[in-house]
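fwd from M.: "can u put these together and see what the complex looks like"

so here's what she sent:
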Amino acid sequence: MQWADLKADEISGLPKDETIVVVPVASLEHHGPHLPTGVDIVLTSEIARRTAVLTDPHRPVLVTPAVWSGLAEMHMSLGGTITLDLDTLHAVLRSICRSIVRQGFGKVLLLNGHGGNIAALGAITNEIGSTLDIAIATTSYWEHAAERFAAILEDQDTIGHACEGETSMMLALAEGLVDRDKFGQAIGPDNPTVADIAGPAVLRWRSFAARSTVTGTLGNPTRASAGKGERLLDAAAESLSAFLRNDAFWNMSY
Amino acid sequence: MQWADLKADEISGLPKDETIVVVPVASLEHHGPHLPTGVDIVLTSEIARRTAVLTDPHRPVLVTPAVWSGLAEMHMSLGGTITLDLDTLHAVLRSICRSIVRQGFGKVLLLNGHGGNIAALGAITNEIGSTLDIAIATTSYWEHAAERFAAILEDQDTIGHACEGETSMMLALAEGLVDRDKFGQAIGPDNPTVADIAGPAVLRWRSFAARSTVTGTLGNPTRASAGKGERLLDAAAESLSAFLRNDAFWNMSY
Amino acid sequence: MQWADLKADEISGLPKDETIVVVPVASLEHHGPHLPTGVDIVLTSEIARRTAVLTDPHRPVLVTPAVWSGLAEMHMSLGGTITLDLDTLHAVLRSICRSIVRQGFGKVLLLNGHGGNIAALGAITNEIGSTLDIAIATTSYWEHAAERFAAILEDQDTIGHACEGETSMMLALAEGLVDRDKFGQAIGPDNPTVADIAGPAVLRWRSFAARSTVTGTLGNPTRASAGKGERLLDAAAESLSAFLRNDAFWNMSY
Amino acid sequence: MQWADLKADEISGLPKDETIVVVPVASLEHHGPHLPTGVDIVLTSEIARRTAVLTDPHRPVLVTPAVWSGLAEMHMSLGGTITLDLDTLHAVLRSICRSIVRQGFGKVLLLNGHGGNIAALGAITNEIGSTLDIAIATTSYWEHAAERFAAILEDQDTIGHACEGETSMMLALAEGLVDRDKFGQAIGPDNPTVADIAGPAVLRWRSFAARSTVTGTLGNPTRASAGKGERLLDAAAESLSAFLRNDAFWNMSY
Amino acid sequence: MQWADLKADEISGLPKDETIVVVPVASLEHHGPHLPTGVDIVLTSEIARRTAVLTDPHRPVLVTPAVWSGLAEMHMSLGGTITLDLDTLHAVLRSICRSIVRQGFGKVLLLNGHGGNIAALGAITNEIGSTLDIAIATTSYWEHAAERFAAILEDQDTIGHACEGETSMMLALAEGLVDRDKFGQAIGPDNPTVADIAGPAVLRWRSFAARSTVTGTLGNPTRASAGKGERLLDAAAESLSAFLRNDAFWNMSY
Amino acid sequence: MQWADLKADEISGLPKDETIVVVPVASLEHHGPHLPTGVDIVLTSEIARRTAVLTDPHRPVLVTPAVWSGLAEMHMSLGGTITLDLDTLHAVLRSICRSIVRQGFGKVLLLNGHGGNIAALGAITNEIGSTLDIAIATTSYWEHAAERFAAILEDQDTIGHACEGETSMMLALAEGLVDRDKFGQAIGPDNPTVADIAGPAVLRWRSFAARSTVTGTLGNPTRASAGKGERLLDAAAESLSAFLRNDAFWNMSY
């Protein structure tokens, strides 16, 4: 169920202990020469929607509109990007979760759709969870569906940026916004990654302009297809729906 | 043009001095028994979209996704509502406008679609304008199109809340989300207004639960029709498009 | 009654449910070549004082000292001006109102005397009212006494800036601080206003240096007289005193 | 000179390098049964005024209106008190000083008139001085004129609270606001002081309700007289005027 | 080199482009019945020290004192714990890094020694890196030395909490602070973990009192030994020293 | 007792009403050519430790690790210095004290070891004390032991900066970090002090680079000796221990 599509009385009438409120958190940012800046918003919203459709017969799921601007400082120098700072993202999610709690709900998933948000959402989830004393979790859809995604993708193991995976899903959902003629100019990165140079345990500040100087992308969209995209979207929704129906998790002590 | 639908290079390629960036600011809140909570988001986004369509042939207009949560504390006790606090709304709009400026644009309209945001957007517009040194303005669509709206509406002079006007526009855009059977239970307010008691110059803190104890509405949806709604949406867009094409305004010294 | 003139025991002894605390909010700013920078402080304080004198026989009114610095960024470039930023004005009024509430009072009027404060006081009133759960309202004296003022003023309908109205009231209260020789050089504005160009529904950031490049004023002080000023001051106080005695308003549910 | 009494052009015309801007910082708080809550505002403003009168022939001194609310949490439980929190006092003084600097001035004195402000003004002076890179100092009038005051006072060495000294100065300035009949009930404290128990080097949080449970005062007003008050006011002004004329101080490197 | 042990001139004399400043970030928190609350401070400081010793011959490394309080809300209910909130940790690290940059250095490692800090340090590293425009990275010592640690540890693959690993290192460094008699009562957790229930991609707010209700630990200290501890400390230092000497990393564009 | 050396259960087992938690607050800053930057951390920590040793037989004293970065903006231009801003120091101490209170303790001493912190700690002590409603005090060790110190020191009455006193104590504790060859180049100040020019009642913003242009010091280290240092450390601890055992103080109403 979409929060924004329901009458207030319908929301108030939901079983408060059962319902999980899903807050998609995305970003509006440069996505190479071939994809629109709204990719993360489109994908995260759609995955949240499909997840709710799969889950609602078993447990009510209420999806808020997507927080469409996240932490995208890394893309700012490439154009087309809007970013919040960390304190503001924290403040927005705190206000949203506080409102959710005041409406009587106590189970929240911050569903992430943008790599640059991962660390911040982890920190913010802990801060909000302890302050509001609620069952709150966060995950990124491609990390949650990692095995399913690896089985579908051919050129990469997981989602990069404006890559085989994101391009496939956009072809499935909004082909008109995708420019196939630019696929050949959209392959990246052309610089070694932090992991290449320093291994997987190091996180450092690094712009996408430095990671991928020509295209700002991480991946190869020429390997994308609408069919793959449809399978990825469903795989994410299935993975997340199983998670939302995991009573052992949502009833854990905290 | 919708920012989120464009590739980053298309945004970067716009004439920076000419383009006006429109940021719709809405709310997710109780809208009576007959309308969904997302009314302000739907209407403000659609009016911004129509405004851009009318204006783009003359001057590029770039519409960001709607800031979908505003100042809705007044509706919190009625259910279905999410609200930001004043400092958070300020922080969000400051981050968004700062990003817009860093992308090279210098003309911004904060297009308001929720009564509870009016005062805050006035104050925030001044604060952001002087801090970022840009041409920034704010207006509420129903105030900007006040004369056109008065000519279309029959039961009221302007937009109330979940009223003839909002219900008409929702019938035009998303009839499936409107519950006509509840129209008769949706008429409000049942208490005198602040203006009734103290005249038009006084603003006071007052919840909608106090203003309209039964329905939480201000207006009469039984007077609504999809045809009126379509005319209202076009009227708002025409009024705002004329404003965006008003070179004398956008080139004023400030 | 002036809070600062009373002993603490006298304040504590007031009937807490009946008493209204009035907080004048003004500004210290450029007021043309002929008026001192303290105009808004002098006028708002005096109007609050006269309002209390008229009201005290009917209902206790406690007037705090004026918050003498408001949002005057618009005047900064013209000299003689001190301004707060929005967050600071909010913080100051929150501290003051919280103290008032902790002293047992629950009815507050933020009486505004400066145009640049209007939007902010509206937003802050809502924020403080809901947070502290009190009956709090705001109005600007010239808006509250709009009809009375229109009947007295000859050159304008309402208060501008350093105009017929403000100059008249300063002549009545502090003639020694007014420079009549400069009246002829104090007429403004010389640029069209936002309303001239874009109608009444648009608010934009605009400095007074841009509005009125030569004088920084809005109005014509050559039409001022002490007699008019005295009538304006009394009219404001009468209008506001009626408002403070309006039991239906102060006992409204909120 | 009083900032608020000058036209903006007069302020802009002052020699920026020479002029010292004095910002009186006071408090609105319980002052025993015999004195009004505004004592600190009245005294600090008057001492600043007299100081400017003495100094202006030698060096321009510009006195802003008094920041009338300081850190008075210690008096809150006794009634009649309004307090800021530390962050808000910091924010207010930062906004004021930033405005002063933007008007071209670079020498500022935060003239303190309330014991509870001393530590905060020390910390804030350093913070503002380094941030704005200006010559900024703070002193409390009774500490600056300590020797002169000791010579005048009979019952105490320095200013307490609502004591011989403050009562004398109020008798000199606003006898009508002083209640002589309550002098006998206004003697305090009745509890040992922190210094009595732990020596002069310890500062601790302690309310005035704990320090002086019956009267909330520190001192003996029965020893007050208007003549002493007049001498104290002049002594403070003479001491401070010598300080403002101390070129070696105001031209020190920092 | 330890910043605190050097004279200021020695610090100023270091080659600014070469030197890496290491800021250990730890926590003061419950560590089971057998370990002192300062474990993370002791270990992170010592690992930083050993890392610098290994690295200094090749590249100057300057180690600040440890930020000894981190995000330990999860341990608060178990006693002995001090925690910062997220905004405060951000503020502290921002102040420290800003000072480091003002002293001329541009390469910083936030060396983490507490699991609860990981997400926050990731987010803060990005925020500080982009704001100050420096080469800044973060890693947790046990994640960086993951392979080395897995080879040394017998009961677990990596560091838990008050476990084989932490207990071993404390035996090596401060045996007198370790209570061997309590090892048998220190084995945890007794509840399934989030990963057990929901897989590795989910992060949720959860206290250690819920994770490990009896002991508050994650691991088995009976498997600890001082010898293992010494090897772990050296392994961490060797791994990190290789990282600090990785010129390709520290000279990467960002 | 050192908090960090105790197991959590040992801390939880302390008599909550009796125990005093001591939080040393120091600074990491330029200390002349002869002393390391960590002087204030070393001395404050050691004095706190000795104080606890003397006091524990009579009353439990729990010493947290030192807050090692304070307000040292005054030393920044001389190198080797890290500083917090006022708001951050406030936030850190608020988080620490809030955690202390949540662990059940209600008596706190902020033991200061850096002149630049004095004013801020005074203000913060009041703010925290009233907010958390605890018995909290602050003192600087050299001010508390003023008489004892004056009897030991030969060249000065109290502690300056990198002077006879600080150098003596460092010789006693960490002779290897002291460079005796630089003593002759470490004498300061070479400029008159604020007190020289304006008397003791004035506080102003002034960097140490301006106070002591050549050495950044206040005092004469050639008069230092390890023996004096040992006596100073003991004197401070004895003075403070007497204070911590002063039941009349710690049981005062507040």
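replying to her w this: Chain D has a mean pLDDT of 97.
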